[in-house]
Amino acid sequence: MRVLTLLGCLLLVSGCQNLGVNPWEREVLAREAMIPGVADGLDDAFDDHIYFSKEGSSGGRGFGGGGCGCN
Amino acid sequence: MAGETRLTRTSDGWLGRFTAMASPCEVQLRDVSRSTAEQVLKRVAGEAWRVEQRFSRYRDDNIVAALQRANGEWLAVDEEFERLLAYADTCWQLSGGRFDVTSGVLRRVWRFDGSDRVPSADQVAALLPLIGWDRVERRPGQIRLPAGMELDLGGIGKEYAVDRALLLAREHTDADLLLNFGGDLVADGKTPWQIGIENLQQNGVAGQIPLARGAVATSGDSRRFLLRDGKRYSHILDPRTGWPVQGGPHSVTVAAARCTEAGMLATLALLQGAGAEPFLRAQGVRYWCLWE
Amino acid sequence: MQLKKRYQPGPVSTSLALATCALLGVPAMAEEADKWQVDGSMLLYSETDRVSAIEPVIKASRTFKNESKLDLKLTVDSLTGSSHNGAAVTNGPQTFTSPSGNKVYQINAGDVPLDDSFLDTRVALSGQYSWLLNRTLRATSGINFSNEYDFFSVGANAGLNWDLNQRNTTLSFLLGLESDTIEPVGGVPEALSLQPDQLRTDSSESRTVTDVLLGWTQVMNRRWIMQLNYNLSLASGYMTDPYKVVTLTDGAGTALESESLGGVDIGIGDAQIFEQRPDSRTRHALYWENRYSRENDDVIAIGYRFMTDDWGINSHTLDMKYRWQLDRGWFLQPHVRYYIQSEADFWYESMTAPEYTTVLASNDYASGDYRLGKLTDLTVGLKVGRELPSGRKWDARLEFMQQSGDTDAADVSAVIGQVGYRFYW
Amino acid sequence: MRRLLIMLLLLPSLLRAEGVTAEQFSPSLYPDAKVIYVDFWASWCVPCRQSFPWLTQMQARYGAEGLKIVGINVDRRREDAQRFLAEHPAGFDLVMDPAGKLAARYQLQGMPSAVLLAPDGTELERHIGFRADHLDEYEATLRRLLAERN
Questions:
Q1: CATH class name, domain D31-149
Q2: Least confident of B279-283, C60-64, D9-13, D111-115
């Protein structure tokens, strides 16, 4: 299952060569609001922490922050 | 150097006032909070005072004074002073030697107080050896001014302070703003400001122009002259001869992108004398000349 | 010095404009690159009748001349209030001991059993450094500590980000290790034992968590970017919550008595057993984020996460934000989050005596924590902010969260308030 | 409308393009130059902010030796470029390339990019990005190229 996912990703990546933009066409993408993980600043970490302590799920967006004994 | 600043409310924003370089200075702002207006005013006034302190020839505690005291020796200069010297050099080149930051010594014999005290030819000739930007030696980080010569950045300083202050003000706000240092001004924003131009009035044209972004600077002073035997001597001195430029306007106002540029174009035009208007036309800028 | 060119009174305005720029063309203000970017934020979280938290965070980031980057972050998290102790809502009164075991408290019939001695302060510190290996390969590494009264955590991570296709594709790999130490107040309770018996060992427990994150970020076109992450998390060690119990009932909604099961009697409805969770957990999370900027600069952000683990929890999270870009740097951002999860295999609202006997005999797992039960959460909120010149900005948000599940314990409503400010120093 | 016209007249542009459009741009426009430093920049490009003072300095320092710096702006919106220039004065020539024609012609691989050309169009050197810790290197390259061609 995991191997398949990985393979699929690789295929997608190679197919993505005709996706994308030229280096000089990134004026919209350069905006902070368009960068995953940066756009909402500290909100992501706050939310991850809140929902991690209130729900049975966590992870996905990234990690590397703090830990908590609450779950 | 510090001084006082005053902030008052206007119909659409704030007006800050202070005095620098012997001129009343203004900061106008639209759509900002009082605290932002205060910050901007403080920053702008601080910069005006800083530039005045650093480059005024009326002080004895700055680089200009140190240069006089160096008495012909090499003197280390900082990066900002070097840039100003490089600018003065360019202006000297572009004007064919008409703009010269060493010409201030002529003030020793020329005093434009409306009287008839025109110096003698000998008095003027005696000063000419002390004038000449081409006698100033420069090398990276250092300058050497021959003994007896003087440096006067007065023709650049105020406009330079205006441009610098705008860059600094932009650190605090992106609102519409207008800086006016004794008639040398820069506007930056979306909605135009109404700028009163003295020279316009005499033509019967409305004395105001709208300016949203850009700078206006004036050079010359119609009140400073000498009158002798029916001949009027303007205060614009040609450093190459030591004598006033003839047949030119009393003052010139120019609109350009930046204040330093506008001020210099106005000064260069005055130095052209009767050729002022053709010179200004060739620059492709808006200008206003005040003749007699 | 000679005049380099013969003087002609022609146009000088262009040369003069260039010279003016040369005169002014030094950074008038210290560039952002030479400064610390400081983000300060304060979160207020308040549940109706339950937990309240106040959480100030300060983060300082700096990019160096060689384009390496350092992030330092300090979080203080102060909790007060009461939280669900895991027990069921019953139609008679129940009796519990406090986490330390020193005190006894009663919960009325029909009330959600809450333990009100919940008070804690967490301090977390983290540092992350990233640097360029070459123009397209960036390495990152970090450490983090977190400390609370009964819990200590230390973690480290390392990873790579690889830009491909003229930076239109970025592949990331991140490995994280975390080691937690739990030192429960009053000792570690013996799992599945009756709470009134107070069988505790005065010791600490530990667990380790290994995380692997594979990320793929793809620029689709000038206004659309997409990110897909796969996160595998392997935890092993003590995962049980030492303060949570499962209620033993008669099957008709009345709590049993501890003494009827051979335990100590501390009051009415006191047949509560300490929970027990597996000592390993494997989680897979797939996260997909899309950001699209409209012609008018508004940004639509949609995130979806699917998570599944070997405890039997599957969850779906949908997160949507619309950033409405206004004049002069102002923006408004409505936010909706929807979350749904299935219950863990060993989740019990309550347990009957025969069930308890079976679980005890096979040393099986049992938890009544509502967070492991069926859950549906909805959060709606609005954020307002303004970007100021020279990179400063502030924002504030207000959100409402409503949790619901099969039990009353899962009915939690909370208000989230947050204000933040960024400046350069 | 008339008011607007006056305003436009009075808006001295910070874009001194000297009338050279992206279509007209060619290294052969600068026959006297020894090295033409073509810098591709945009208002949204962070390192570009640091590059402007340096480029201005280089133009002032090596202009007499035949260095010609031309900044090619690839912003789609002219006002974005204007705003950038108001805060970051450019002491060198500018050309507007909102459609990215020149960027495509020189096949840029990243932003910012510097392409160093001879007046005959020969590419002498190129670097991607602008790093504050590589300034000495960039300047050494300029000095070397100018020395070779003087």
A1: alpha beta
A2: D9-13
Is position A6 within any domain?
Answer: no
Q: Which spans in C321-396 are helix H? A: 353-361
Kindly report the nearest CA distance between residue D131 and chain C, in angstroms: 7
Which stretch of DSSP H or E encloses residue D148? helix D135-149
CATH of B63-152+218-290, one of 3.10.520.10, 3.40.50.10420, 3.30.1540.10, 3.40.50.2000: 3.10.520.10
Helix (H) or strand (E) holding A3: helix A2-15
Chain D residue whose CA is closest to C67: D131
In this complex, do B93 and C28 lie within 8 Å of one another by their Cβ atoms?
Answer: no
Please identify which residue in the block is written with the tokens 């009915």.
C411
Domain ranges, ordered by start, for chain B: 5-57+158-191, 63-152+218-290
Taking only the tens place, the pLDDT of each residue in B148-176 is 898 988 889 999 999 999 989 988 888 89
Cβ–Cβ gap D87/B167 under 8 Å = yes
Backbone angles phi, psi at C411, to 5 degrees: -80, 95
The pLDDT value recorded for residue C7 is: 52
| Residues pairing with B142 in the sheet | B76, B139
Residue-number span of the structural domain to which A35 is assigned: 24-57
Whether A64 and C397 lie within 8 Å, measured CB to CB = no
Question: Is C285 within 8 Å of A5 when comparing Cβ atoms?
Answer: no
Mutation for A interface: D40, D41, D45, most A CBs within 10 A = D45
Structure token digits, residue A13: 């990546």
Scanning every residue of chain B, which has its alpha carbon at the shortest distance from the alpha carbon of C24?
Answer: B164
Pairwise CB contact (< 8 Å): D14 & B257 = yes
Query: From the CA of D98, how many Å to the nearest CA of chain C?
Result: 14
User: What's the number of domains chain A is made of?
Assistant: 1
Residue A69 lies in a domain: no
Single-letter residue type at D137:
E
Q: Is residue A64 part of a domain?
A: no
Domains in chain C (CATH in brackets) are 51-424 (2.40.170)
Residue indicated by tokens 């592949």: C171
Nearest in space to C187 (alpha carbons), one of C99, C275, C82, C87: C99
Whether B90 sits inside 8 A of C10 (CB atoms) is: no
Residues of C within 8 A of D57 (CB-CB) are 22, 25
Identify the contact set of chain D against chain B, taking CB-CB distances under 8 A.
Answer: 3, 6-7, 9-14, 60, 86-87, 89
**Does the beta-carbon distance from C39 to A42 stay under 8 Å?**
yes
Q: Tell me how crowded residue B135 is: count the other CB atoms within 10 A of its CB.
A: 14
Given a cut of 70, the residues of chain B with pLDDT beneath it are 1-2, 198-207, 222, 292
Residues of C with CB below 8 A from D49's CB? 27, 31-33
Omega within 30 of 0 (cis) for the link into D112: yes
d(CA B273, CA B237): 10
ipTM of the complex: 0.81
Is the CB of residue C20 less than 8 Å away from at least one CB of chain D?
yes
Q: How many CB atoms lie within 10 A of CB B227?
A: 12
Each residue's pLDDT tens digit, D53-90: 899 888 888 988 999 999 999 999 888 888 888 888 88
Q: Does C22 touch chain D (CB under 8 A)?
A: yes
All partners of chain D with 3 or more CB pairs under 8 angstroms: A, B, C
User: How many beta-carbon contacts under 8 Å exist across A and D?
Assistant: 31
Report how far residue B275's alpha carbon sits from residue C342's, in angstroms, rounded to the nearest whole number.
88
DSSP structure class, residue B140: T
pTM across the whole model: 0.82
Mean pLDDT of A63-70: 40
Listed by start position, the domains of chain D span 31-149
